[in-house]
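Sequence of DUF8097 domain-containing protein (Halogeometricum salsisoli).
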Amino acid sequence: MKRRTVARLELLLSLATLGYSAWLRRFLRRHGEDVEPLSPLGLVAGAVTAAVHRALYDRDVGRIRTRRRRGLLFGLCSVGWQRLLRRASSDPDAFRYGYGLGRGVGTLLYRTWFGLLRDLPGDDE
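Predicted 3D structure, token representation.
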């Protein structure tokens, strides 16, 4: 599959995920369920992390796109980064939900700019 097609699929998936998350939160509130608060810091951290991850992947920095083991190691480092930030926050659960939502926002914004409106950076392989 071409990289541009994959980027567009990522864009659609992040849009669908964000739409579902918003719908689910409204649905739960409407039916009297407690909805976990979102951490603004988590939202920002997730969005920045997702955008940086996509930028490094598109540019194949450290050959993380073309070498599967390096890509796996990079993904594990990303998980470690999220856990480190979560532990440092005052409300880890709110941070986790905000971070997850922020990753969707970051992916949506990055893939709208690179993949939909502009060509993908890096070499096509």
